[in-house]
Amino acid sequence: MSRDIQLKERWEKLVDMLSNQFSQGEDLDLDSIIYLIGVQEYGKVHRQYKKDEKLNLMHIAICRLLEPYGFYEFEYFDEEGWPHYKVKEQLPSLKAGEQSVLMKEAIVSYFLERKLID
Questions:
Q1: Which residues, in sequence order, are bridge partners of residue 74?
Q2: How far apart are CA 90 and CA 112, in angstroms?
């Protein structure tokens, strides 16, 4: 099976699983899944977040997702428990479709690592 087909199948399975769990079956988009990962990484799941905090959660998720690719490195947790990352390598210029594929690949890897999908 080609890598692209496998990624597509895993992505669809992941979207179905998360959509059923968090949005009553309505398909979650990429940004929603990134947000959920940010909440998971922050660790405070039963809480309402302000708009700026939601953006911070998405940033945390992106840093965590791209850490295995060498773009970010975890530094520390601050006094409020927010994780902080430093940039190790600038992201390459990617077209929108390429960015989407990279993020989907990173998200699938994140869930594979946690053994939540196979």
A1: 85
A2: 25
> CA–CA distance from 50 to each of 56, 60, 61, 86, 87 (Å)?
10, 15, 17, 24, 25
Query: What's the chain's length in residues?
Result: 118
The DSSP line for 9-73 is HHHHHHHHHHHHHHSTTSPP-HHHHHHHHHHHHHT--SS---HHHHHHHHHHHHHHHHGGGTSEE
Q: Indicate the SS3 state at residue 83.
A: strand
Indicate the residue type of 30: L
Q: In the block, which residue shows the tokens 């179905």?
A: 16
- Residue closest to 33 by CA, chosen among 53, 7, 14: 14
| pLDDT tens over the chain, length 118 residues | 678 899 999 999 999 999 999 998 799 999 999 999 999 999 998 889 999 999 999 999 999 999 999 999 999 999 999 999 999 999 889 998 999 999 999 999 999 999 988 8
What whole-number distance in Å separates Cα of residue 95 and Cα of residue 98? 5
